Amino acid sequence: MDLIHEGKAKRVLQDPDSPERVIIEFTDTVTAGDGDKKKEFVGKGTIACEMSKYLFGYLEGKGIDTHYVKKLAENQLLCKKVTIIPIEVVCRNIAAGSFCRRYGIEKGIELTQPLIEFFMKDDKLHDPLITTGAIIRLGLAEREDLDFMRSVTLSVNYYLEELFKQRNLILVDFKLEFGRTEKGHIVVADEISPDIMRIWDSKAASLDKDIFREDKGDLVATYTQVFEEMKKANPDEVEPRTESIQVIVESKSGIKNPPGEVTKKALGRLGFADVEEVRMGKVFKIVLRKPITSEILNQLSIMNVKLLSNPISEKYKVRLE
Amino acid sequence: MVVAVLRFPGTNNENDILRALSLIDGAKPILVPSRKGLAGLKDADGIVIPGGFSYGDYLRAGAVASVESITEGVRNLAEDGKPVIGICNGFQILSEMGLLPGALLPNDSARFVCKWVYLRVSDNTTMFTEGLEGSLIRIPIAHAEGNYYCSDDELESLRDEFRIPFRYCNEDGDVNDAANPNGSIDNIAGIVNQKGNVLGLMPHPERASRPVLGSSEGLAILENFVRATKC
Known about the structure:
- The complex is a heterodimer of chains A (321) and B (231).
- With 321 residues, chain A is an alpha+beta fold.
- Chain A has helices spanning 44-61, 98-103, 132-137, 143-165, 210-213, 219-231, 258-269, 294-308; strands at 3-6, 10-14, 21-26, 29-32, 37-40, 68-71, 76-80, 82-94, 110-120, 170-181, 186-189, 197-200, 243-251, 282-288, 314-320.
- Chain A folds into 2 domains: 3-237, ATP-grasp fold, B domain (D-amino Acid Aminotransferase, Chain A, domain 1, 2-Layer Sandwich); 243-320, Mth169, Chain: A.
- Chain A contains 8 helices and 15 strands.
- Chain A is elongated.
- Chain B has a single domain (2-229), classed as Rossmann fold (3-Layer(aba) Sandwich).
- The longest helix of chain B has 11 residues, at 219-229.
- Chain B is globular.
């Protein structure tokens, strides 16, 4: 099998049976601090693979698009071939790791709501934090893609957090990678294991890669223990979460907007003389039963053209909330 | 011949249409509530979609009605070459359905316009204007979204294919800006589809169908429509 990519803890191989699929092989290597610290742990690849299979399957069941297809060998997953978007999406519920160092705050502070951060995927630069403005201007991803990844990451956060909560496991933070399939769909890629997330028990003891980062115990035993605990949770008891979308419909530029003109005159009568132009449009708030996927976004475009806007005279924008 | 007069929730001109049609020999008008769906149109030889405020003009005038299942039947009849007239809200529904090109936008004045206007009938005949070619018709309008808009290319095809039978004009028959009640492109008051059997008209011929109403000059349009149902 041809090696497509060799990462720090995984190898990506071409699936000999399908050009649209790859085989992801989980190695026993564990690295931290950008690869400064590196070690082999026998059985780590297998447990990370098992857990990824389990959690990808769970998330797929909740309607989230991932690259996962099926498990092959004990440390191999068959996945859809994707082009990885060079942005790592981090979601934080509790302050830990680089977040504490960057802002000089104490580990363990609960954030008022989940925080999404983007990091540029670049080992040489040590994966720096990056702003959305820079991502767009550097051409690493489009604004729509970032909004999409943010929305999906928050859905993943909800579903993992609720599952773990059943077993008194606390999801502190995690990192996702996304890829674009041949069809152009953006899906969750890479892996989902304690290598990419922090999980604490009720006494804030680490059950993840921090064991290795801080030399606090037996890594494989801890991963196995947290996985066993996870499997005792009941996925069916996690309630589906709705997602809100805004569709903004405006008349095309160049088309007169009488309601806006009347409003402008009225504002003028109230003394707001500096108002140059007012254009009135419509906003639809649409609540979906499922997490947002590329397919749902396609359906939304059809919805917009068929009913919500009149393409002859109007244009629309979709905003993920 | 059976003329189906459609009523969507919020349609309110259906009785005026039924009454006007009852004056015409050979017309057998029936009221068809939209909830009847395709089955409601099975005997129809022609369709009138009257004015009103279907679905409260929510979303855009005519938009919600345009995706009701009965519109499939309207499409089928139109494809068979049967005559279809959409008046006022009916015109908005036909354009939202895509059976007629363009869109009806809010009036330039941003006001509901309700008044008598004059129409200049095109010299080029259509199914609906036989005998009226080149004439002047006095007829009422009553709408908030009657500002006909289409792309320049579309306007060119409409002109080249003689598909603009009705344009707003003054009492002398001059088609000009001053006589344009709503901002419609090229003073358009009514257009037909490429086949010539689907008419969209903002003014109300049924409200100019008897002398007691102030004019009976609109009746001829409906008479032509009824004659076409027999073809």
